[in-house]
Amino acid sequence: MRTPADELLTPRDKGIPTFAIGTTVTELLATSPRLEEFWTPMIVLDDSAIRHNVDTMAAWCRERGLQIMPHGKTTMSPTLWRRQLDAGAMGITLATMGQVRVARSFDVSSIMLANAVVDERSLHYLAAELADPELRFVCWVDSVDTVDVMTAALQALDVPRPVDVCVELGAPGGRSGARTIDAAIEVAERVVQAPTLRLAGVAGYEGSLAHERSHSAVHAVREYLERQVELHNRIRHLYGPGEVYVTAGGSAYFDIVADVYADADATSDEYPTHFTLRSGAYIVHDDGFYRQISPFDEGRTEGEDAHRFRTAMHGIARVVSQPETGLALLDGGKRDFPYDEGLPIPRHMASDLGATWRPLSDAAVTTMNDQHSYLRWSSAAPAPVAVGSVVALGLSHPCTAFDKWRVLPVVDSWTSGAVIDLVRTYF
After folding, report:
1. What pLDDT sits at residue 325?
2. Is 114 in the same domain as 254?
3. Which residue, of 221, 284, 293, 367, has the fewest CB within 10 Å?
4. Above 70 in pLDDT, residue 143?
5. SS3 string of 326-359?
6. How many C-beta neighbours within 10 Å does residue 5 have?
7. Which residue has the higher pLDDT, 354 or 305?
């Protein structure tokens, strides 16, 4: 079976040591590499935090009788997907058919596409993949037009079995999805009439309806999820033989999803129903958006540490210039670090990689260019960093962090410089 560790490292894999070029990840790891051998800028992953987050989410879902198919588009890393699957995830969620093709090339056999498939070329590919009896695949539809486009394309192909589809329920002002329950029922009825499709449940995404934890935001999310369960109850009689899904849940409101799903009546279902979360960002958490909104952030959750997520990704950049008092320029910018959900947050500094990290306070990244970040502090204060020193940055939004890197080093813990793995991405 093909694995990312079998692929050669090349000069296109930014940040890797020069001596690693032309080796595989396995060969590099055999040299016991240290973080100080890597080039800046970089994003470093913390293995101990990843392990904790994956185990925490898996145990929490098991306790509540929930399935999880974590959203793989967060990392697009088969190595990290495997860790989630090994911890009990039922499959991987993806967002595009291109991502599905990547997953299939790494033998992922259980996939939810949180989207519709209406491109004839993608459907042709899907029809061929469905010849694999081990493949579990389900996608979404949100309109009669979507159903009709899929049906027309699939009828012209030799489809070995019907494509499982969930009816997506949306909300006014939200993203995709039928805007009313009645409209969604009409879609479900059209699916039942399509010989190349099988109605497999209901789906949706609550995260587009709110972006914080105010009373009104939580109410909007809960109300939407209750409507989703109502839709499931109203189309139960349309389900045919096979698995049924009721699915929602990003990484911000999965606790509310669990509460609403716990009240759903599944006792009369003729077919097995999987109440399924699709959270993805929890695997690395962050120091920004999800830190502020996740129910499991270490600063929000009461109780034992076991029920808190830990930040598992850190940016590292080097000071390359101090052109004026109170300003330092770092060698990492928008091409290296996420910025769409908040600028990086200076957390620690060291004289160099491999040296002792010290807290960095009273400084902020105020602006970013393509390849620079502007680190500022009070002009009355002494410079907290020097040219050539390194700064560790808290990052916000994993989904736009991973896509900037082909290879990310993994250390055994944030306090250690021992590189124990390299995670490869496939965006």
Report:
1. 95
2. yes
3. 367
4. yes
5. CEEEECCCCCCCCCCCCCCEEEEEECCCCCCCEE
6. 15
7. 354
